[in-house]
Amino acid sequence: MVKETEAFDTNLDDDLALLTETLEEVLKSSGDPTDQKYVELKTKAEQALEDVKSRVSQASDSYYYRAKNVAYRADDYVHEKPWQGIGIGAAAGLVLGLLLARR
């Protein structure tokens, strides 16, 4: 799971770097709509932006469904073993309280 997240972070970083470089090239261009290089860079920037938006959207959907799945599993666990759930909650509260009291 950690390696998958690291791979996603690396891919996202690479995508954002590519997008930034492309947009910088567009901004440095003359900006003349009749200039073929400007038109090509603008098209490339628009495509890169759409690709990154799509990947970020898919990733956020994936994290949403994973979090929802974890919440359902935790809910099922607490319903099946309520006393253990209370114990875990109490232990987490105790640890959090001790950490906050140190400040």
Automatic annotation (TrEMBL):
Its main location: membrane. Residues 12-61, 74-103 form the DUF883 domain. It is a single-pass membrane protein. InterPro entries: DUF883_C, DUF883_N, YqjD/ElaB. It holds the Pfam family DUF883_C. One of its GO terms (cellular component) is plasma membrane. The keyword Translocase does not apply. It is found in: Cell inner membrane. Keywords: Cell inner membrane, Cell membrane, Membrane, Transmembrane, Transmembrane helix. Belongs to the ElaB/YgaM/YqjD family. This is Stress response protein ElaB. It comes from Pantoea piersonii.
